Structures are given as structure tokens and as C-alpha cells.
Amino acid sequence: MTNPFSTEAAGLQGRHNAETIFKLSGLTAIVCAIGFLVFMVGSIAWTGSGALRESHVQLSIDLGPEKVDPSNVEAASYQTIVRDALKERFPEVTNRRDRRKLYGLLSPDAALELEQYVLDNPSVVGGVADIWLLASDDLDIYLKGDVKTELDESRRKFSDLEIGLADSLVQEGQTRRQFNTRFFTNGDSREPELAGILSSLIGSFFSLLVCFVISFPMGVCAAIYLEEFAKKNRVSEFIEVNINNLAAVPSIVFGLLGLAIFLNFFGLPRSSPLVGGMVLALMTLPTIIIASRAALRAVPPSIREAALGIGASKIQTTFHHVAPLALPGMLTGAIVGMARALGETAPLLMIGMVAFIADVPKGILDSATALPVQIFLWADAPQRAFEEKTSAAIIVLLLFLVLMNLLAVLLRRKFERRF
Amino acid sequence: MSDFQSKFAVGVNPFARQSKGFGNAAIMFVLIACSCVAILVTVGIVMSLIFETIRFFEQVPILDFLFGTHWSPQTALTADVVGSSGAFGAVPLITGTLLISFIAMCIATPLGLASAVYLAEFAGPKVRSFAKPLLEMLAGIPSVVYGFFAALTIAPFIRNSGSAAGFDISSESALAAGIAMGIMVVPLVSSLSDDVINSVPQSLRDASLGLGATHAETVRKVVLPAAVPGIAGSLLLATSSAIGETMIVVMAAGLAANLTLNPFEAVTTVTVQIVTLLTGDQEFDSAKTLSAFALGLFLFVITLALNVIALKIVNHFKEQYD
């Protein structure tokens, strides 16, 4: 006597197992994707945190009368003074090639820094002073423990001699690490220890400003027309199709447009935030139009009917009643669009915002670069120390993106009205 | 009574202070002009690409461009050397682009679809409100970050595990760029497919469940087949964005135009070549810089076609169940 339910019972078990497996595979996919996100951001943040600290070396520097003339402090050769101090600290280094390595322990900027220090503290002139000077990127990496000393000397940039010198400095307590403000206050530099993000950050700011000033009013006007006034005909349909397609055009094509039309046809200044902002504005326009239309659609018809009912014209209804109610939604869309524009790199490469810019741009017509472009440039740089700079710049970029999106969410929460 | 009449006499519109006529016409003109910017931009893109492309094809025959298998525009710089015209065969670039996009879709399709099915059918509101924004964050991270990560972490990892297994893998393999790109388009696939799955009518699920199918069986045999056209549309959209993606490939894929389908070799893509041809100083009349516009036109046409098809499919699908 066979149990008529036995096969089905086994089948049922199998089917339930299949259900669990199916569910689990979905969960695994989500965990994989989110895990990648966490791993990527985490590892970049870990690397980037190193760039927030910089190393200094303490040297006792002879600022006696034969080195610095007390009546004319600025005339002294601080480069020589720093080198003499190094030679005095390490008298055993005599060979010319080794001397060069010795001098390389300090940043090329150390002499300038010393000069500034002397100008700020005139009392040190005439004696010997212990002064902290900025270390070079190679020494900085070594002090952070990122040099693989077990490698053969020929396979690393930091030689055994330099390691010996650095160890001696560490033993005497003549090195220290402190917070790196330079990273936030300097422009780009060929020397990793001097490179900062300020110039690119300001460049990004100007570009986004231009982008917002152009795309927000234009996007809002287009949305108002399409949502409130346009009759459903071929023309409005064609405009809609255009907007949807523009939203999906690869960003690099917008860069080609900027290059061919803004630069070559209109002759606007190359590498300027003005052109960068204009290209970004064209890119964000579809995003803003689509978001603004959704915001207008969320305003209930009763508002319009009430205004029209007491005698307002169509334009008055729209501009006095509907648009103000939709404004928070439009702004939210604009901020999200700006956040995307902030991370955009490819179109800016096309219009030449990829140059080496050490100075902070003062206006929208100066040559400038943008934060993501700076990341791209540093990622390409040969020095190893730029790796942590790049990561730190990425973290700054991501922080700005998070802040902007947070602002959008807060705006939506604060002004969202359920009708 | 007379007071009331004088205040609300017929023809005295309380809004009449505002001049109608000219002011309104001006406002309408501004609104219409702004809407037409979208058309202007499209026209601008098409015009600028087409004009430069025509100039390019005056110097290089169109058939050499479309079917040539050798790409080395750099030689065009030296005018007096033999073979100075450079080689502008776009086939290696196109296969490279397709190879990397294919790898990306191989990653994004299973991950994106599985997450979409889980979020739409199985996840509770709590998991949904937590996982969805996190997935969307993947799309919000700038591509230059993915490029950096692909070049610095994924590519060395692939090369090292390859050499441990005895393979010689290029440090700029198509695989590294493809993986990073795949992860980047996961949220695109998952959110579009999520929408599509949600728009499958509940009655279909109820019927299937009522007949005794398990939830997973319902999804696999009823919901997904019903959603296939919409899902195909979302995959096409994701492919289009993978083809147009620039920074990841610029940073993680190579410059060498190898005609290969081996994911472990370095390949170059259309977007990489546009960037390399146009960054730095250029004279605008050389075939070298003009070729970038021909590549741009190619890219524009392909992505546009994919988008139009995808949107048609998705809209048709949604109408079907409305």
C-alpha cells in the first residue's frame, strides 16, 4: 500500500527548499552589491585617512649673524641654511649623491617655511633655534610605515641610506606628525606633500554656480510650460521626447558639444568654470525639468481651480499659487542634479579643465579644474604619495555629495505637503 | 447696496491692475523659449558631431573607419613618414567597448535582477527602506571613484590571482573595468526592474498562489515571464549607459587597440579614445582630432537607438497592464 501523499510530501519539501534558495539568492545579490559599496568606500577612506596627517622634522638651525643679517632678514639664503643644518645633523654623509638624498628628506618648501617662520618670530635671529620643518613625501610615507623595507633596495624608492637617516631622526624624537591643513588650503602641486584640493574645490564651486544659475531657471520655466500651458500636440510631444533622450546621452558627448560650440564656435575661454558650468547645465537640465514637472504635478488641481475661480488669470494662477507650492520639490530636484554634476568628470576633460592649476581661481573666467578632475589627475601621478591624496580627495568629494543629498532630503521633509 | 455695487461692479476685475497683453506674451515667450532649449541642445549635439565627422570623412574614407581593423591615430602627427595618414579602423574600439559592456552586463544582470525580485516580492518594508537607498548610492558615486578603485584595487587583485594560477594577465585588463562598471549599473537594472515587477498586476500573483504554487514558483513562472519585456528594456538602458561610460575605462582599461575578445587582455574603448584624442593641445583640423567627433557621433547614435528601443519596450509593457 503506497501512500498517495508520500511523493507529494517529498515534492513539497523540495519546493519549499527551492523557495528558500530563491529567496536567499536575492538576498545574496543585495548583500553582494552593498558589500562592494562598503568595501570600496571603506578601503578608500582607510587609504585617504593617511593624507590627513603630515610629517615634520626638527632641526637645530643656526641663524647666527653670519647666516642671517639681522637688519635684512629677507636677504638670507634659507635654502643654504636648511642644507647646512642637515649637514650638521648628519656629518657622516659626505658623498655628493648621498647629500642629495639627505636634502631630499625635507620638502622643497622647507626653506620658504623657515623664512616665513623667521619673519614671524624675529627673536630667533642671531642664535640657534630648534625648528620643525615639513618632511618630503618619501620620508612621510616611510614614517607612516608604508615602505616595504623587506624589498630589495633596488626595488624601492626609499634607499637604505635614507632609512638609516630617518631612523636616527625618529630615535632622537626629531620627527612628529600633525594634522595636515595644507591639504585643504593649498592648490595643486607637483610635490605630493604640498598638494591640496582648494583650487579644484573652488573651481568646482564656480562651475556649479554657473550650472545652477543657468539650469535652474531654465529648467523650471520649461517644466512650467510643459506641465501647465502646453497643449498636447506634436510640438510638446517632440520636446518631451527630446528631454527624455537628452537625459540618456553619454556625458562625454556633452563635452564634445562644449568643445565644438562653446570653445571653437563662440571662442569662450578654454579651461574656464564658465564653459564647464555651461556644459554641466545642459547635462543637468533634463534632470531638473523632469523633477520640476513631477513637483508641479503633485500640486492638486483644487489649488488651480480655486485661483481661477476667483478670477486669476492662468499666468497668475501658475506663478502666484502653483509654482510657489512646487518650489521645494523643484529645488530638491535641482540639488540632486547639482550633486550629479559635481561628480561629473568626462565632459570637463573635453573642454580643457584638466590642466595643472596651482592657483586658486578668482572668477568664472580663470583657468580652473574641478574636484573629480583633480582626482583623475592625481590618480595618474607617478609618485606613490599621491595615492593617499587621491583617496582623501575622493572622500571629500563623497562627503560633499552626501551633504547635498542630505540637504535635498531635509528640504523635502520640511516642505513636503500632503494635499 | 450702492456701496456693494460700486465695489463689485461688472467689468472691474480686482486683478486688472496687472497689465495683460504684452506682459503675458513676454512670459509665455520666455517659457516656450526655455522649453525649446532641449531641442536646441539636441540639434547642437547632432550638428557639431555631424559637421566635424563629415570633415573627418573627407580625409579618411568612411569604409576604412567602419571596417578597418587597425587603430593608431598617433602616427598621423608625423607628416613625412611613410604611412603618415595614420590608421583609423574603429573595429578594435567597438569590440573593446562591447567586450567591456558585456562583462559589465554579465555582472549587473544577475545581481540587479535578483535584488529587484527580492526587493519587489519578498522584502518587508523595513528591509526595503534600508536596502533601496543603499543600492541607489551605488549609482550616486561618481564614476571617477569606480575608475580609481578598479585601477588600484580590482586590477592588481586580478593580475595577482592570475599569476598565482599561472596566467599572465594584463594590468589593464578588460575584466577589471568591466567588473567596476557592472557594479555601477546594478542600481539602474534593479530600480527599473523593480518598477516593472511592481507593475505586474496583483491578480496574476493571486491566481497563481490560489492554484497552490509557492511564492518563488509564482515569481519564477508567472511574474517574471509577464515582466520579461520590461526587464529587457531595463537591461538595454543599462547597456546603453555602460557603452557611454567614460571615466572607469579611461582609468582602468588600456590605450592599446587590441582586437581581441579575451577579457584578460587590455582593450581600449570608443570613449577612451575620444578622451585621449582630445585632451591636451590639439590642432583642430587634423584627422586625429576630427576622428574623435566621428567616434562621438557613433556613440551618440548607438546609445540613442538603444534608449529609444528600450523606452518603447518599457512603455508598451506598462500600457499593456494599465
Describe, in plain words, how this protein is organized in 3D.
- The complex is a heterodimer of chains A (419) and B (322).
- Helices cover 64% and strands 5% of the residues of chain A.
- With 419 residues, chain A is mainly α.
- Chain A has two domains: 53-180, no CATH class; 198-415, MetI-like (MetI-like fold), CATH 1.10.3720.
- The longest helix of chain A has 44 residues, at 6-49.
- Chain A is elongated, with a radius of gyration of 31 Å.
- Mean pLDDT of chain A is 87; it is low at 1-8.
- Chain B has two domains: 17-59; 87-321, MetI-like fold.
- Chain B has twelve helices and two strands; from the N terminus they run αααββααααααααα.
- Chain B has helices spanning 2-7, 22-59, 62-67, 91-122, 125-140, 143-164, 174-198, 202-210, 215-244, 247-252, 270-278, 287-321; strands at 71-72, 87-88.
- In chain B, strands 1-2 form a two-stranded antiparallel ribbon.
- Residues 1-12 of chain B have low confidence and may be disordered.
- Classes of the chains: A mainly alpha (419), B mainly alpha (322).
- Chains A and B meet through helix 1, helix 8, helix 9, helix 10 and helix 11 of A and helix 2, helix 4, helix 5, helix 6 and helix 7 of B.
The CATH homology group name of the largest domain in chain A? MetI-like
Q: How much strand of chain B? A: under 5%
Q: Describe the strand arrangement of the main beta sheet of chain A, using strand numbers.
A: 2-1-3
The CATH superfamily of the largest domain in chain B is identified as MetI-like
- Taking all Cα atoms into account, the compactness measure Rg of chain A is 31 Å
Q: Give the N-terminus to C-terminus distance of chain B in angstroms.
A: 56 Å
Q: Can you tell me the overall shape of chain A?
A: elongated
State the end-to-end CA separation of chain A.
Answer: 68 Å
